[in-house]
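Table 4 source record.
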Amino acid sequence: MNPSETSFFVTGGTLRNDAPCYVERQADKDIFDELSRGEFCYVLTSRQMGKSSLMVRTANRLRESGATVVVLDLTAIGQNLTPEQWYDGLLLRMGRQLQIEDELEKFWRSHDRVSPVQRYMAALRDVALSKCRGELVVFIDEIDVVRSLPFATDEFFAAIRECYNRRVEEPELNRLTFCLLGVATPAELIRDARTTPFNIGKRIELADFKESEAAPLAQRLVSARSIARKLFARIFHWTNGHPYLTQRFCKVVSEANSGSIATIGDAQQIDLLCERLFFSPRARELDDNLLFVRERVLRSEADLTKLLRLYEEIHKGQRIPDDETDDRINQLRLAGIVDVAEGFLRVRNRIYFRVFDCNWVIANVPDAELEKADGERVRIDRSCALGRDSSSDVVLVDQKVSRRHALVQAQKQYEFWLMDLGSSNGTYLNGRRVTEPVLLRNQDQIEIGPFRLTFRQSKASHVAIGEQTCSDRTVFYK
């Protein structure tokens, strides 16, 4: 194999429009057809799926068909900005691409009495669209960046939705089309419950490679085609067509076989390579994709215990149907750790199945419990209310116990804090009255009236002894 062949595979960043390793999928046809018809589209899925590369290819095809295209990468605009600066930055980049910077800048300055989002959308409609003879397609990539901005962007996505809804009254807007790409769900684009959700457009499903779609990649693994097909079949066995994992695996095999003598020539050697690339302790800590999946799951805003327990059920083969209204399922899908087959969730590939196994779940699920005097244990997930009221998680029936007496609250991974809720007779921890939220440690004794409970936790918090109180910490009550 020619050494230059090893540059065929690309495992990071956006592929060039003419990259030979690009694998066409059904999404390529779907997004081009929908945008050509003027439909608003969104590609919302996990990282390293090829969203930006799909965008580049589609933008080029649209230009060739006569459309005007603008590509806005929100990571390039910045984050520590005011709304005025952010929208002006979007307009500046659009102006450069359309070569109408002066016109847009003049419009921006002459309409400073209206809000930034109104100015931006008006400039897009009254200046940019009027300069285009045909269709204007605006791609907005990395939309999840807006969650890091110091201001709400609900109105930005609401304005995009309005462009779609006003097409009946303003036919000229049929020439303006948007495509949104990023790691988010439609529900996350507009978070204010008082605002109509982002409920327009066509969802483009960007699936993993099918083996038949990715078959051309096999030709670059080794010179002998019969061996190349067997090698690729084994690679696919592990990756199940995950774009990043497949390209990375193929790249390493191609490099190993680039000399005069191929060093990887059978399935057993592919398995050994998989061990080194993805399953070794070092690989689990350093591989970009494995790190993203892990951090996305463990840092999710969803209840971590319930999220991990759901994933554990999927890993064990239970038939869990897909449900777009279930936030836990949405978070697992955006992390990329699961996908859908015939309407049911499954672990996405054999690499994930082994790296993120049941032992991984056990190691990361919060495991705090309260043990009563009779030995009964109550698991603490995100919070645990203690009191005389029947709705409490731990019901303590005694006149010395207030209806809502105390609360154990998770704040960070492995951190559980005890607080008294203004009870009449107080809450005691290891014999001392609790006057402010205090960090619990394994085998701490909690006394409420005549009741004694033992806090048990196998995983220790990393908070130092001198940092055990949190009077200035925000605590969310159940």
